[in-house]
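Why does residue order matter? Because the sequence determines the fold. Keep that principle in mind as you read this record.
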Amino acid sequence: MKEINFIRSALFVPGDRPDRVDKAVKTAADMVVIDLEDAVPLATKNETRPKVRDKILQYKNRNVIVRVNGLDSEFIYKDLTELAVEGLSCIMLPKVERAEHIREINRLLLTAEKENGIPEGGISVIALIESAFGIEHAFQIVSEKTEPQRLFAIAFGAADFTLDMGMEITKTGEELIYPRARLAVACRAAGVAPPIDSPFMIDLKDMDALEADTKRAKQFGYQGKLCIHPNQVEVCNRIFSPTKEEIEYAQKVVQAFNESEAGGTGVILVEGKFIDYPVVEQAKRILRMAELISPSG
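Structure:
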């Protein structure tokens, strides 16, 4: 699976449309999210699950994950026990609001992993925070530790958040400044991967607005963005990838740091700027990102 701290784009596809899964895996999306929650009617969730299982097995090397139903639903247990197969390396859990939800999904995953012979802790979790309560408890959620420790990331769901708040989403996104910032700060403070931003949903044909929204998410410190249409993938991949100039500067920073350490020099200057450890770590992360991007990415 692509590292959970390097997801530029995650493309949603309905679980009851196997043909769309086939198309989605051919895109350049870093991750394909088969949706068993909002995209599938209540009456057909049980019959959809085997179709999703087949696609997980078919594309086990393509970073295909599943958005399961919420912990408060009647479907979550079977979602996990029937889909915890080889190739399911990650799930997305909706409506996460408190640290107890992380402990509960860990408990359910342990049961599913044991029943299906999957290594304990092998299935990662992307927790979808999409309510005012979840936003206000973000730090507690991202700080929660499980046993065994699972790879863990946060995603923001703006549609349900604005519904919860009685607001409307706008193209310019001023109403999302606070929740976006709070999630990004919480992840950084807790030492977990940067969050993944909500999809842009207002006008799928307005690529300029999508690009502006994606750049805003990057400025807040997000690592990538959820996508609801294949035409959003290229924009997200491009904006969340390091530029040539960023890579070249990062190389200079790391080289200068290594030379400084070897020579016992305390002060590091690159292009007239003082370089400290956080800058060096960011430079190393940029270089790592560049290594992970495929030639077609």
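Residues 43 and 62 are 29 Å apart (CA to CA).
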